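User: Predict the structure for this protein chain, please.
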Amino acid sequence: MRITVIGGAGKMACISVQYLAQDPRVNEVVLADLDLNQAKVVAEYINSPKISIHKVDVNDKTGLINLLKGSDACMNGTVYYTNLPVMKACLEAGVHYTDMGGLFFTTQKQLELNDQYKEAGISAVLGMGSAPGIPNLQARYAADRLDTVKSIKIFDGVMPPPTDDPKFTYAVPTILDELIMEPMIYKDGDFQAAAPLSGFEDYWFTPPIGLLPMHLSLHSEVATLPISFKDKGVKECFFKINYWGMSKVVVEKIRVLADFGFGSDKPVEVKGQTIIPRDMMETLLSGYVPPITDFLAPPKNRPPDWVKEIVTEVKGTKDDQMVTYRMGTLTCKGALPTGVAPAVAAIWMAEGRVEPGVYPPEIALDPVPFFKELEEIDIITQVTKTQNL
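Assistant: Here is the predicted structure, written as structure tokens:
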């Protein structure tokens, strides 16, 4: 089995490369990236004979298609802006596709390729990272056990860093978009926009994570879950997170910059030079992303020293009784599920376990065996069922 990881030298995708290289079902891992120096750092750290390094530019359509040919599946680990072109390249190369999310609107556009993928006899699983990805399967597990579904509420809780820690937890462009763009929620049978950093509520996570302030954020789960379980009567769906796992102080500073126009993509003249404020902010903030080895290093702790829990609460009815399922997926290394989940999805597609077409995770994958695979590397899912009187 040959799996190609586009952007494999990235902070999350390098985890996928590591997992795939250690999986006995995989014979070859193609680490494809524009930054060959960073790719070499990743490959040397993992130190597996299965890994081959290739330079790729996703804007070079012909080169990308040629690279993909012969692979059993592609995992797109680049920023979500590239999802559609990489997906279309996979379509021409005849290769299964998965990614880590499309930030709601891109996911909706990707789903439109369903008929073309079916005709080509290949499959795509969209938004298969930590979140989106795991919450979709948590929701599927609960929905399968309920007659009706009233609400799907997702809470992504990360142990907060020290107040003055300026580090970014994943791709700077994606975090900036999640911070600036309006979150989408599903309420009373319709999609609605909300204000950024709104909808605050305190939520209890498994100790030692504890009580965290949660707010709305734009995310792909909300784009698909209400549609997937529409027949069960979903009326409400949202995604909330605690400052994207970053310090509240740092997020507030970035928000101020955005309010003053540094998040704009409109060109401005500065001393005779044309610049894009957003590009400048991304460039400056990229210096606050931890080194790649921080993401690749194996966990030093073991459960119950949790640092992240992804929770999906699904409320509905079973035999006319109101029931709430709380699905909590825990890890002692916060970034681990983000890289492992799409790697597992890529393997499953290569094995022919997903029908041809383009699907969200809750339609494509069986949650029970999926969560069992995650348990093998200490990503543990706990289920609580409560009957509401």
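The mean pLDDT is 93.
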